[in-house]
Amino acid sequence: MDYLISLFDFYRTEMKISDIYTEDQKKIARYAKALGHPLRIYLLELLSQQACCYSGDLTEELPIAKSSLSHHLSELKNAGLIQGDIEGPKIKYCVNMENWKEAQDLFQSFLKI
What we know:
Elements: H1 2-14, H2 23-34, H3 38-48, E1 53-54, H4 55-61, H5 66-79, E2 82-87, E3 90-95, H6 97-110
Antiparallel strand pairs: 1-3, 2-3
């Protein structure tokens, strides 16, 4: 019994829960979190229909506060689904096609479970 407790203590201190996740699982979770709000889905659809869009143009199109828009764009950018380049006082946003393709492939593989 003491052996089992010692073994349990060893694994509890040496192994973290994050150690069991694969890189693909972490990426899927990051992309899923970013897609977890209807406005972010809307923003991705909007950005996918044009080459790029400026933050000021998005503010005019959406009936939300600039701070809310900024938060949602930041979530998408942090996940790597969009990219933003500063051009003067505005930020130009567009879909990060490389990461979008990766997200599609990861979700497609995951959803086959």
